Amino acid sequence: MPLWEGQPDAVAVAAHATRLAQSPDGLAAALRGLGTGVMQPLWERLPQLTIPVALVVGERDAKFRAVAERMAASLPAAALHVVSGAGHAVQLEAPEAVAAIVSAQ
Fold it and tell me: What does the domain layout of the chain look like in residue ranges?
């Protein structure tokens, strides 16, 4: 899938192994209940969220980087962190960078 292009081989192998270890019923339930297509849009409520929010995205994840940029523009206390060289699975591709961002919050 284009979403995973450029992902380091070690990350792709580990992520694939993790997915294979999950139950098909559990994965299907997660997609039905937590997929972006079924979530209620809350864009209009973002300005009400006054707590600090760290938005972390991979540089190569164009779709979710655009979403994060849109969110940052609506959130009063947002910090957008774009992790250089990372893609969609930023937490797997650059765990040290993500940990540093979270620890600094």
Answer: 2-103
Residue type (1 letter), 35:
G
Q: Is residue 77 within a helix (H) or strand (E), and if so which, with residue range?
A: none
Dist CA 87 CA 89 (whole Å):
6
- CATH class of the region 2-103: alpha beta
Whether residue 33 has pLDDT greater than 70: yes
DSSP E strands in the chain: the ranges are: 53-58, 78-83
pTM of the shown model? 0.81
Where do we find the tokens 């284009």? 2
Cα dist. 90→25, 40, 78 in Å?
Answer: 26, 24, 18
